[in-house]
Amino acid sequence: METNVSLDVNVYAELKILYQRLEEELIQVNPGCSGCGICCDFSKFDHILYASSIEVDFITQYVKVPNFNILDNICPFLKDNQCSIRNFRMLGCRVFYCDPHYQAVSQDVYEKYHRGIKELSTAYNIIWEYHPFLSQLAKFKSDSPAGTH
Ligand code: SF4
Ligand code: SF4
């Protein structure tokens, strides 16, 4: 298991509940996805994935972060065109679908859960940070003790 400065475990538990609610809501919306994985290759998709520091902390607490080159601009958790950390992936990953029929509701769904995560940071007195995912992950790798990640 990766080691990171751990937040109150209740934050992670509440974050998991938020993610679960989101997944239940998305089942009702049922956006289409072929699972091609192209949206996790940010250059190909011309897209920057943002994440809150709470979510990145959650991932790095439970998941081994592979070595990666930020200049490749591909999520290092993409393996054989599949997400290798589905249970831990961020809100930005969970709400993104390229299905044009989903676009009408995507912003509302995103904002609702983004607000929920922000409220967690207030409730647990955690500084709210929201930055590109890859740069946060690269910082985590550079801050980690050599040889542990
Ligand atoms: S965490 Fe998973 S879903 Fe999110 S960008 Fe990476 S591979 Fe894609
Ligand atoms: S959302 Fe679109 S681009 Fe991303 S994996 Fe699904 S079909 Fe591919």
Verbal overview:
There is one protein chain. The chain has about 150 residues and is mostly helical. It has one domain (about 10-145). It has 6 helices and 4 strands, in the order ααβαββααβα. The protein has helices at about 10-30, 40-45, 55-60, 90-95, 105-125, 135-145, and strands at about 50, 80, 80-85, 130. The strands form 2 sheets. A two-stranded antiparallel ribbon has the order 1-4. A two-stranded antiparallel ribbon has the order 2-3. A hairpin with a 2-residue loop joins β2 and β3. α1 (about 10-30) runs antiparallel to α5. The structure holds iron/sulfur cluster (SF4) (2 copies). One iron/sulfur cluster binds near residues 40 and 93.
Task: Summarize the topology.
Blueprint: H1 9-29, H2 42-45, E1 50-52, H3 53-62, E2 78-79, E3 82-83, H4 91-94, H5 103-123, E4 130-132, H6 133-143
Antiparallel strand pairs: 1-4, 2-3
The protein binds iron/sulfur cluster (SF4) (2 copies).
One iron/sulfur cluster is lined by residues 40, 49, 75, 77-78, 83, 85, 89, 93.
